[in-house]
Specification:
The protein has one helix at about 25-40; strands spanning about 5, 10-15. With about 55 residues, it is α+β, with helices and mostly antiparallel strands.
Length: about 55
């Protein structure tokens, strides 16, 4: 029996009892996935110049 600590809820669980490793359950896996996706989504866009349409 191998004990792991869930990265999402920090709970210790038996690795043999989880189908969503390295998380303790599927719900924690989804929570982590959503967190990761939202972090990607909020990254500032680089190399994007502001529109410059000032009239001459
Ligand atoms: Zn968990």
């Amino acid at each position: 029996m191998a004990l792991l600590t869930c990265p999402t809820c920090s709970r210790t669980f038996d690795a043999a009892q989880s189908a969503a490793l390295p998380f303790c359950c599927d719900r924690c896996r989804l929570v982590d996935l959503h967190r990761w996706l939202s972090e990607q989504h909020t990254l500032p866009l680089a190399c994007e110049d502001p529109p410059d349409d000032s009239p001459d």
